[in-house]
Specification:
single chain, alpha+beta, Dipeptide-binding Protein, domain 1, Dipeptide-binding Protein, domain 3, eleven-stranded mixed sheet, four-stranded antiparallel sheet, 21 strands, about 25% helix, about 25% strand
Length: about 475
């Protein structure tokens, strides 16, 4: 093991030394960071690369979410609902894009309209029918086809960053020198990484760092080894296996690992066998064992769910054969599937385990070809709206209803949450609807995940945003 770690550290040194060789020569205030996912769409904000732009402080959205999922001002100072389908946003004055042009309501409207016309449309506004127009220099009107009380939350999506008008060329968009964030992207040569410079004209004050040097390293243990070797200052998404001798901030995520049971066919069309799965698993043991204490036992689909009183049924499987699948992209899931399979065997199930990369698993998953799946699901993706998540995953018309449940009473409970405008009341109703979901035992929550952000002792001011949209801000510094 010692030899393996030594060789790994040597490999990291050879990998990163060239990448970061010149960074510290420019002064100690440059930050060296390694991220797991390289851009796949030339940093277009309308796809998976959007979150890279916000995490690195390149671009910003009109709205951000606080830790409770409530919308807060960012490039928009305030907003009001003028009618069931129209909202008025006051754009922050004095904001400059990296190319020197001013942020105006017209620029914000153009950015939103272009996102709404993109192919594919960003998930946060898909099917919503968003359109925007300037109602003054800093007054922006945003409309939807149908009433939508969650529009401000939707506009917090990293896919909806506001870029300079010059960024948009036909159907193409480039964030080069086009954001409003504390750091400037100089070009699109980002296959291996990027060298960002400080934006002295940043609206929230001159950034504390002089720049950021970014490299993309897919392997989590390699990122952790680079941090231990002093080759980087920040390493995100450090796996549990890589935490030894690493200083890390543990950020609780709105992400839950659950057993999803296919209720559309035997054996889990039988409620008693779903109850047997629920009674077999031990969330506390999984959090302590597989996650080594770096996860929280789940009491529901959402964090903050009150523990349920469960009456044991004593149900057993009697030799029922099932396939239990998961994917290997998240390093802890194969360990979870092994532990859960062993628990299910103790209840009389005969379990075949299937572990693949998600891209290889998804077609069978969507087709319902597995009996059960260990699934890691962010319930705050795109808008942070719990009601929308429940509708997508558990309603009769839900587009990602992997458990194939269709219960009119459940649809009613979800519909009641969706109908509420007030953010707090909507969240409370969503928690009630979640109770109806849990009663079906179609989903058996296991653990709430955390993400580990490794850093050197010299780094402070990193964002611990639970939605993982922010990381490096104007307040991030090196001592």
């Amino acid at each position: 093991m010692l030899l393996r770690r030594t060789l790994l550290a040597a490999a990291v040194l050879s990998l990163t030394a060239g990448c970061f060789a010149g960074s510290q020569a420019e002064g100690p205030a440059r930050l060296r960071v390694t991220l797991p996912f390289a851009p796949v769409q030339s940093l277009s904000p309308w796809g998976d690369d959007g979150v890279t732009l916000t995490r690195l402080g390149i671009a910003e959205t009109l709205v951000r979410l606080d830790a409770d999922g409530k919308p807060q001002p960012l490039l928009a100072e305030s907003w009001t609902r003028k009618s069931p389908t129209t909202w008025s946003f006051r754009v922050r004055g004095g904001v400059k894009f990296h190319d020197g042009t001013a942020l105006t309501a017209a620029a914000a409207a153009d950015a939103l309209n272009r996102a709404a016309a993109a192919s594919p449309v960003p998930r946060a506004i898909k099917g919503v029918g968003v359109s925007a127009k300037a109602a003054g220099d800093l007054d922006l009107e945003v409309s939807t086809v149908a009433p939508d009380p969650t529009l401000p939350q939707r506009l917090s999506s990293a896919n909806l960053v506001v870029l300079s008008p010059a960024a948009y060329q036909g159907e193409r968009v480039s964030p080069v020198k086009a954001g409003t964030g504390p750091f400037v992207l100089p070009d699109l040569n980002v296959t291996a990484g990027a060298t960002l410079s400080r934006f002295d004209g940043y609206w929230d004050g001159v950034p504390a760092l002089s720049g950021v040097d970014v490299r993309f390293v897919p392997d989590g243990n390699t990122r952790a080894a680079a941090l231990r070797a002093g080759e980087v200052d920040v390493a995100t998404t450090v796996p549990i296996s890589g935490l030894a001798n690493v200083t890390a901030a543990e950020v609780p995520l709105p992400r839950t690992v659950s057993v999803l049971l296919n209720t559309a066919k035997p054996p889990f069309a039988d409620p008693r066998l779903r109850a047997a799965v629920r009674e077999a698993v031990d969330p506390a043991a999984l959090a302590k064992g597989v996650y080594e204490g770096h996860a929280d036992p789940a009491t529901g689909v959402f964090r903050g769910t009150a523990p349920r009183q469960i009456t044991p049924t004593g149900a057993t499987a009697g030799g029922q054969k099932i396939t239990l699948a998961t994917w290997s992209d998240r390093p802890e899931l194969p360990g979870v599937v092994t532990a859960v399979a062993e628990s299910l065997r103790g209840k009389g199930f005969e379990v075949e385990q299937v572990v693949r990369k998600y891209s290889q698993l998804e077609p069978d998953l969507l087709a319902g070809n597995f009996d059960a799946v260990i699934f890691s699901r962010s319930y705050a993706m795109d808008s942070g709206d719990l009601a929308a998540n429940l509708s997508l995953d558990f309603s009769c018309s839900g587009g990602f209803n992997l458990v194939k449940v269709c219960d009119p009473a459940l649809d009613t409970a979800i519909g009641q949450a969706l109908a509420l405008d007030d953010v707090t009341a909507r969240r409370t109703a969503s928690m009630r609807a979640q109770d109806a979901v849990l009663t079906t035992n179609a989903v058996v929550p296991l653990v709430h995940e955390r993400t580990m952000i490794g850093r050197s002792g010299a780094v402070s001011g990193l964002s611990t945003d639970p939605y993982e949209r922010l990381l490096i801000t104007g307040k991030t510094r090196m001592s």
